[in-house]
Amino acid sequence: MATVTVPAPRSPRSTRTRRTTRTNVEMLGWMFMRLSGVLLLVLIFAHLFVNLMVGDGIKAIDFAFVAGKWASPFWQVWDLLMLWLAMIHGTNGVRTIINDYAERDGTRLVLKTLLYLAFVVTVVLGTLVIFTFETCPAGAPTELLPSFCTE
To answer: Which of 92, 77, 88 is nearest to 43 (CA)?
Structure first.
């Protein structure tokens, strides 16, 4: 009687080549997801608390509110950290899903390329918006501007 060996459930597919490295990239990605998830919870809930609970609540959120927040380097860095962490966290999660479910190498390459392109575009544009936001634009109606803007 012939003995049949069944590969372990988590063994790599035969079509993929598995490289051994000194650092375990997947374990580092797993650790990053846990740590960034906890930090994102703190950043997001503090962001929501400040924007929705402090002051007049949701009625107060307008251009002047955002301009007043982004006039402070603290809030610029806070929102930048939130953007970057959320994008890296989400991109790493989608990368993992692509690796798990994309059967062919070509499909995996195309999907990851599109994912990384979307990541770069979003992070670059978001960073530019945060740091180039004009808090007191010339010619804007006075009632829409924050109180510290003078004509």
So the answer is: 77
The 10s digit of each residue's pLDDT in 19-44 is 555 668 888 888 999 999 999 999 99
Q: Which of 10-19, 48-57, 95-104, 112-121 has the highest mean pLDDT?
A: 112-121
Q: Could you tell me the domains of the chain?
A: 26-144 (1.20.1300.10)
Scan for tokens 């806070």, then name that residue.
Answer: 78
Q: What whole-number distance in Å separates Cα of residue 15 and Cα of residue 41?
A: 39
